[in-house]
């Protein structure tokens, strides 16, 4: 009989040992990099193809192009129409999705192991040989134009779009993947075909296969489906990668408002450009973010939600890209509390830089929450495949997952303050409010951020 | 088609105080899922106090007698992921912890089941009331089409029906809530006899039961609340309109349909896929793909304990009228009622059902993980092993059973037709609609 002592919390035992499954790397004859990982809990398999480029590779004036190219992948292959393709996916119960990031496009397909070959063949056709029919292009583009119209009414989308513009100016990371009305209208089917020809090359892609089969079987599936992907004759693009483009000198906007009449809440973004994902300070920045705004018990959420009740939740994050990435605080607060919430948020960012360094308890909590729960991120084949694809996106070593826990545990309070001092700069912060300007303008004037720049949503 | 072995094995025991304990072993990853369901939701509220069950859920994270501070820190420090949610029928709470922290998670869960009230202060209560008001603003009031659930609930059900209000509650009711209301609610609904605990993952079954007994066995039992039941029916078609901050009009068609797990429920779920899920679905293909009258189409059976509703939704493409869209939808509904699904449609639906049941076995914890499913089956059917029977419901569906369900439940003359339109543009609503007020 176990006896319970309610006078004190039970200690946590020794952290269970966890080792990330082996990643075996191969290169096919056409230059395609393939990673195989055995994952045997359930007879399910995930294929993930990552193609370099993404929305950061959209040519100027054609913003939204890579997202349309990604959309067109399953709009017709071989002798199959878009509808036939959808039917073929349903018949193997496939879960298929495309993610267009700033630096790459990720195509992911999950299916039952017994349908593995059919799933791989479909995915290869999507990525390598989409038919790109004119009628489907027109339809897909129109759907995206109509979706843009709807986004104007979504406060968080308006904030996202405007904030990127304020931070990045004319940089290739400055736009949402969907682009804008004007740029979508510039895009033709020829642009789509040219982009596909240029960017979708086996040497610029990585395939991850993770499932309940042996490495040999996983590799054979990859070869059977993708060996026929031949490199195009055309020279690769000479445009610099978005991650190599130096951000232009954007004049600092301290305070901006996009008005939304009678809005019950103000959608807030506060931040500035910070650093790249591959910085050696990454573990310190992770801990910094956890203390400041990266978890439920962060300073920011405890202040704005649990103490003040201004919001349903508030958080901060480094929004990682290969190139220079933003630090951003985001929340949605009651209109009447807008200025107070901004003042509290700015004060928390300032304090973590030194006047209130992380306490021992905060450090223990932040590090434990990042490391102790680490294994649960690798439960499904899809989670494992996406994690391995992340390694190729940022050029991280295969030992990354094994090293993560000790590296985070080595971070000290001084490291966090040092990282905060170097990467968070209150004098460079941009505060953006999407809310009812007439209701909040008086209180905003008390923030000492100057008079706000009034902006319109630009979709 | 060969049937896959798709199984969710478990062991169940009931403690002397009435708490159901269910254990499922899965040793692939060194984590354990702790999942608790209380059989109480917004359907147990009364008019004037709507939103209470959900506000109460927030209070469960504010501390209990023996750990009188936030619920999150000691668990996050142990590497846990945790959350909770409330719907019309139930409230659930879960932690996913490293194997080494199971004791701590059970200590915390049992402390708030047995000893919540001594830690509850007026200040904590009032702050969470503000947080919930902000949740309501963020998730409903400040979101395009966000007030639709309120309009649909109040028009599908009469005002004394517990599904006539939504789980978030009315803002006035939330503001009017008092600390004193909490005590009674806790005593009525938060006790072992009205709860179910699942431990799933990297834990040996015998030890799991020993731990459950040790931590929860001492909590006094309570009286299991009686079932809430109430009939609901529509006698006519109701055409309503709601103005919103939106660019494009959207129409919602809603019908009453069989309760969760009752005859016809799986068929309605399959009809949702057949009509409006994916490019091959009939309405997507017709309205979005072929005719381009709509930007999107969706549809589903919203299965609930004492009565479900079936919903079809379409957003008009610029220049197209909701009235025309509804007319096309009605044509398709008549065809389904007349001819039922095709063989191809059934094959596709079966393949998807099999795969989705398999995908459901991939995670032990969190919303929809294996622990949550075992609790759902236990609380709503009394049998945690209902997983296999659930899959059989789908395998047993036939073109005739789908056709019969469509004929019985998707009647054009008994439904709600709700148009959501840009402010001041009543002419864009389905013809004959009258304004509905929501707050």
Oligomer state equals heterodimer
The largest β sheet of chain A comes out as: 6 strands, mixed
Topology of chain A as a string of helices (H) and strands (E): EEEHEEHEEHHHHHEHEEHHEEHHHHHEHE
Distance between the ends of chain B: 51 Å
Shape of chain A: globular
- Strand percentage of chain A: 15-25%
Order of strands across the biggest sheet of chain B? 1-2-6-3-5-4
Name the helix and strand elements of chain B from N-terminus to C-terminus, one letter apiece: EEEHHEEHHHHHEHEEHHEEHHHHHEE
Helix content of chain A: 25-40%
Basic shape of chain B: globular
- CATH class descriptor name of the largest domain in chain B: Alpha Beta
Topology record:
The complex is a heterodimer of chains A (459) and B (439).
Chain A: E1 24-27, E2 33-38, E3 44-52, H1 65-72, E4 76-77, E5 80-81, H2 82-91, E6 95-100, E7 104-112, H3 116-128, H4 134-151, H5 155-168, H6 181-186, H7 189-199, E8 205-211, H8 215-226, E9 255-259, E10 265-275, H9 282-292, H10 299-307, E11 311-318, E12 325-334, H11 338-351, H12 360-371, H13 381-394, H14 400-409, H15 413-423, E13 430-435, H16 437-444, E14 453-455
Chain B: E1 11-14, E2 20-25, E3 31-38, H1 52-59, H2 72-76, E4 81-86, E5 91-98, H3 102-114, H4 122-141, H5 148-156, H6 171-176, H7 179-189, E6 195-201, H8 205-216, E7 238-244, E8 250-257, H9 265-276, H10 282-290, E9 294-302, E10 308-316, H11 322-339, H12 343-359, H13 370-381, H14 386-395, H15 399-409, E11 416-422, E12 434-435
Parallel strand pairs in B: 2-6, 7-11, 7-12
Antiparallel strand pairs in B: 1-2, 3-5, 3-6, 4-5, 8-10, 8-11, 9-10
Helix pairs in contact in B: 1-4, 3-8, 9-15, 10-11, 11-15
